[in-house]
TrEMBL record:
Signal peptide: 1-19
Keywords from the UniProt entry: Membrane, Signal, Transmembrane, Transmembrane helix
Membrane spanning stretches: 215-237
Protein name, as recorded: Uncharacterized protein
C-alpha cells in the first residue's frame, strides 16, 4: 500500500515536472472563443451554491457535483438578482428571510460558509467563475444584525469576458433581522474594463486595478520635474551670479 502510493506520487511528480508550472484558469475543456462574448447591458445571472441548512455543507448530485440554484428572488422584480454587463447600477433586492434563508445567512455572517455564487465567462458558455458575496454582521441568539449595503466590483476585459468579481458590506450600521422578516439588500455595482498585463513569456497575465487616478500620477510626476528644473535653475543662477559678482570685483581691483 505504502509502496504503491510512493510510486503514484513519484509518477505524479514526474508528470508535474514535465508539464508547465502554469495551468490556464478557468480550467475547462471548452474553448471560450467558440462562444460570442457579452454585449453592453446584457443580463449576467448569478447562481449560488446550495448548502445544507444546518451544517452549511454543499449539496451534491449523484455524480458528486456541487449543486447551484439561482440567486434569491428579489421581491421588487420577483426574479433573482442579475447584473447588466458593463452597466453600473444601484440594485435594491428585498429578500424574505424565511426559515431557510435566515439560517443560511446565520452561516454566512458567522463565516461558517462563504456565500459563493458563479457567473459565466461568456454568456451561455458553461464556463463559470466564482464570486463571493461577503456580508458582515453579528449573529446573536434570537436574531442577527446584518450590514446590507454591498459594493460589488466586477472586472471585464477587452474581449468582453467577465474575469472576476466580488461584493462586500460597506456601511456604518447594521440592520436587525428576525426570522420571517423582509430585508432590503443594496448592491452598488461598479464595472471596470481592464487590460491584461503580461507577467511572463508564457502569455500569463493579470488584470490589475489601475491607480486611483492615473492623471494625478502624471500631474505629480510633471510637478516633480518642474520643481526640479526650477531648483536647478535657482541654484545655478545664484552660483553664476556670485561668479559674475566676484569677477567684477576682481576687475575693480
Ligand atoms: C449608526 O451607528 C452609529 C455609531 O454606532 C450611531 O451613532 C447611529 O445612531 C447609528 N444610526 C442608526 C440609524 O442606527
Amino acid at each position: 500500500m505504502l509502496f504503491q502510493s510512493l510510486i503514484l506520487s513519484f509518477a505524479a511528480a514526474l508528470s508535474f515536472a514535465s508539464a508547465s508550472k502554469y495551468q490556464s484558469y478557468p480550467l475547462s475543456e471548452l474553448d471560450p472563443t467558440k462562444f460570442s462574448s457579452y454585449s453592453k447591458g446584457q443580463d449576467v445571472s448569478l447562481q449560488c451554491i446550495r448548502r445544507q441548512i444546518d451544517t452549511g455543507e454543499h449539496i451534491f448530485d449523484d455524480q458528486g457535483n456541487i449543486l447551484y440554484s439561482p440567486f434569491y428572488k428579489c421581491l421588487e422584480t420577483n426574479a433573482p438578482l442579475s447584473l447588466k454587463y458593463m452597466e453600473d447600477s444601484n440594485v435594491q433586492c428585498t429578500i424574505k428571510f424565511e426559515d431557510e434563508v435566515f439560517h443560511m445567512f446565520q452561516l454566512y455572517l458567522h463565516k461558517d460558509a462563504p456565500f459563493t455564487c458563479r457567473f459565466e465567462l461568456r454568456p451561455n458558455s458553461g464556463i463559470y467563475l466564482p464570486i463571493d458575496l461577503s456580508f458582515r454582521g453579528n449573529v446573536l441568539e434570537s436574531h442577527f444584525d446584518i450590514d446590507p449595503n454591498l459594493n460589488m466590483v466586477m472586472i471585464a476585459n477587452n474581449e468582453n469576458e467577465i474575469i472576476s468579481g466580488t461584493g462586500f458590506s460597506s456601511s456604518t450600521n447594521t440592520t436587525k433581522v428576525i426570522i420571517g422578516q423582509n430585508v432590503e439588500l443594496n448592491f452598488n455595482v461598479k464595472w471596470s474594463n481592464l487590460h491584461k498585463e503580461l507577467i511572463n513569456d508564457d502569455n500569463v497575465g493579470v488584470y490589475w486595478i489601475p491607480p486611483r487616478n492615473p492623471w494625478l500620477v502624471w500631474i505629480y510626476a510633471g510637478a516633480g520635474v518642474v520643481v526640479g528644473i526650477v531648483l536647478t535653475f535657482l541654484f545655478s543662477y545664484r552660483r553664476i551670479n556670485r561668479k559674475i559678482q566676484l569677477e567684477s570685483w576682481n576687475k575693480v581691483e
